Amino acid sequence: MAVDRILDMIRTSVNVSGDAAVACVVASSEELLDKNIFNK
């Protein structure tokens, strides 16, 4: 059974969304995030 494939997809999506969230937090703290574009 290919259970690991499903779990790997879940792990990958959590990893990608976490990386994107951390990138936004770091960019905001470094004042590199253009909030007008971000809020569109």
UniProtKB/TrEMBL annotation:
InterPro entries: Na-dicarboxylate_symporter, Na:dicarbo_symporter_sf. Keywords: Membrane, Transmembrane, Transmembrane helix, Transport. It comes from the Bacteria. It is a multi-pass membrane protein. Pfam families: SDF. The keyword Transmembrane helix applies. Transmembrane segments: none annotated. GO terms for cellular component: membrane. It is found in: Membrane. One of its GO terms (molecular function) is symporter activity. This is Glutamate-aspartate symport protein.
